[in-house]
Amino acid sequence: MWRCHKLSSAVSSDLVLVVVGNKADLGSERAVPEALARTLAAARGAHYYETSARTNLGKKLTGEPRPEDDLLERYPR
Questions:
Q1: Which residue in 18, 13, 5 sits closest to 61, CA to CA?
Q2: How does pLDDT run across 44-59, given as a tens digit for each residue?
Q3: Where are the compositionally biased (Basic and acidic residues) regions (predicted)?
């Protein structure tokens, strides 16, 4: 998370942080539990998404904003 702090202090406020948890299908075998990853993402104001190549999970989680929606809101076409 040090890099996250360093990065956010070096760029403008337009930075959108996204944390992606992979191997969502492995449950307790994951190196970082989902709850911890969500907590760390929330502490940095980042969006959190889950992915799994095995189950093809990669769609946004219900009720969570998509990063591209944030960007479109900030920078309309």
A1: 18
A2: 888 888 887 777 676 5
A3: 61-77
Q: Contact, 14 vs 45, CB < 8 A? A: no
Q: Is 1 in contact with 44 (CB distance < 8 Å)?
A: yes
Please give the model's pTM, rounded to 2 decimal places: 0.59
Alpha helices, H only, 1-77? 2-10, 34-43, 67-74
Residue 63 burial (C-beta neighbours within 10 Å; 0-12, 13-18, 19+)? exposed
d(CA 53, CA 30): 14
- Give dist(CA 57, CA 77) in Å, integer: 29
Query: Distance from first CA to last CA of the chain, Å, rounded?
Result: 32
